[in-house]
Write a structure and sequence with these properties.
With 467 residues, the protein is an alpha/beta fold. The chain contains 14 helices and 14 strands. The strands form three sheets. The protein has a five-stranded mixed beta barrel with strand order 1-2-3-5-4. It has a five-stranded parallel sheet with strand order 7-6-8-9-10, sandwiched between helices. Its main location: cytoplasm.
Length: 467
């Protein structure tokens, strides 16, 4: 009895006993690893939509059914709301819900049945055109920063033309728009759009083309999935910007275009900058102008300092007039340069104002004029202040030149000699005799001395002998 029990325990120890959790986990790994993403078609039933935002339903046909789970992140991307009894085509991954051991499909994408075959054909077409290099990013051109004229290829009666024109008028109404009306769905629409592209390139009236259409079903957007249209877009010498359908709609025309916007309105916003942005650029240019003027003023100040040093090294009495004329010339050149710069900027600002007057944004323009006038007044005040400082420095330089008095001459070794006690300045040796007392003014201090001998100049000696 004891030996048998021990043997039985040994056998139990060697068994590989699985838990239910392990079994379901292994089954799930096998299911998910055995098959790729699948396209499955069927009818929705037992639809459940809990507050979490997820969606649970059964997909069935006449012979079988399977549970499906569509999680909130994927559900938010759907272009429709699923309902019971609806035929759908789902792209899903086979999996197993471990908590209950339920075999199910985890849905990644779902669309109404009928579009499925069409989408598969479009995927094959996209792969073929991509292999031909039609979608290469390296071949795509940069859109113009500020187009001179925009060509709009769309239906003349659709909502897209209104949306695009409204956004363009709001952002930058100065840019003209030329509309090429075309049908955007139905038979012949793709050929008409391609013909409009060719016409726009022949006329060469625009430097940017916008290809736009409002939202719709896959069938409605099929004109923009035409291969010939894709080739026409790539053959265009003018950059092409697309705004077709909604953000989730990605057509072959979008892939072939130089740039794609999710909607027609977004295409209009991409095409032109906002007037406020241009105003900011103008303000930045004004700041650069002010900085340049400050730089020139600083350079002039440095030249003035250099001139002042040169004056200090030379005889100021001989050079003062020349330097003053030079400074006046520099000041006049600076004034002329500043006036020319101001006139140029004023003319540019006036051209901007003249262009902006033609727009419907009169109230905003008045505000911009007031800001520009204030900026101009501040700039002129800054210039006047800079000129006042330069004039003050010039005055100081003159004052320093005036400071070059005889005392400065004494610094170079000269002296002022006076006869004592009356302190008359001596200009001739004939004015004193031996034994007279004299005073000597030096650069630092004063001396009193007695004349040992006096030697008048020859002309003075001759004059005395005549007398």
């Amino acid at each position: 009895m004891s030996f048998a029990a021990t043997a039985e325990q040994t056998v139990d120890f060697q068994r590989d006993i699985w838990t239910v959790s392990r079994l379901n986990a292994e089954a799930r790994a096998i299911l998910e690893g055995s098959l790729p993403l699948l396209w499955v078609q069927g009818e929705i039933s037992n639809l459940a939509e809990p507050p979490s935002g997820h969606c649970y339903f059964t997909l069935k046909d006449t012979g079988a059914q399977v549970r499906c789970a569509l999680f909130r992140q994927r559900r938010q991307l759907l272009g429709f709301r699923p309902t019971n009894g609806q035929q759908v085509l789902v792209r899903a991954r086979l999996t197993l819900y471990e908590a209950r051991g339920d075999f199910q499909l985890r849905v990644e994408h779902m669309e109404p049945a009928g579009e499925g075959a069409l989408r598969l054909e479009l995927e094959r077409r996209k792969r073929r055109l991509a292999a031909m290099g039609l979608f290469d990013e390296a071949k795509k051109r940069t859109l113009p920063t500020l187009p001179a004229r925009i060509g709009l290829i769309t239906s003349a009666n659709g909502a897209a033309v209104h949306d695009v024109l409204t956004v363009l008028a709001r952002r930058l109404p100065l840019v003209p728009v030329l509309i090429y009306p075309v049908p955007v769905q139905g038979e012949g629409a793709a050929a008409a759009i391609a013909a409009a592209l060719a016409l726009a390139n022949r006329r060469a009236e625009c430097d940017l083309l916008i290809l736009a259409r409002g939202g719709g079903s896959l069938e409605d957007l099929m004109a923009f999935n035409d291969e010939a249209l894709a080739h026409a877009i790539r053959a265009s010498a003018i950059p092409v910007l697309t705004g077709i359908g909604h953000e989730v709609d990605l057509s072959i025309a979008d892939l072939a275009a130089d740039q794609r916007a999710p909607t027609p309105s977004a295409a209009a916003e991409t095409a032109v900058p906002a007037a406020a942005d241009l105003q900011q650029r103008l303000t930045a240019l004004q700041r650069r102008l002010a900085a340049a003027l400050r730089g020139r003023s600083n350079a002039a100040g440095q030249r003035l300092l250099a001139i002042r040093r040169r004056l200090q090294l030379r005889d100021p009495a001989a050079r003062l007039t020349q330097f003053a004329q030079t400074l006046d010339g520099l000041q006049q050149r600076l004034d002329r340069a500043l006036r020319r710069g101001l006139a140029h900027r004023a003319a540019a600002l006036e051209r901007r104002r003249a262009g902006l007057r033609a727009t419907a944004l009169q109230r905003r323009l008045r505000e911009r004029r007031l800001r520009l006038a204030a900026s101009e007044a501040r700039l002129r005040a800054a210039l006047d202040d800079a000129m006042a400082r330069r004039r003050q420095r010039l005055g100081l330089a003159g004052a320093r030149l005036d400071a070059l008095s005889p005392l400065a001459v004494l610094q170079r070794g000269y002296a002022i000699v006076t006869r004592l006690p009356d302190a008359d300045v001596l200009r001739s040796a004939a004015a004193v005799s031996a034994g007279d007392r004299i005073g000597v003014q030096l650069a630092r201090g004063r001396l009193q001395a007695a004349v040992v001998s006096a030697e008048p100049a020859r002309d003075e000696a001759a004059s005395e002998s005549d007398h």
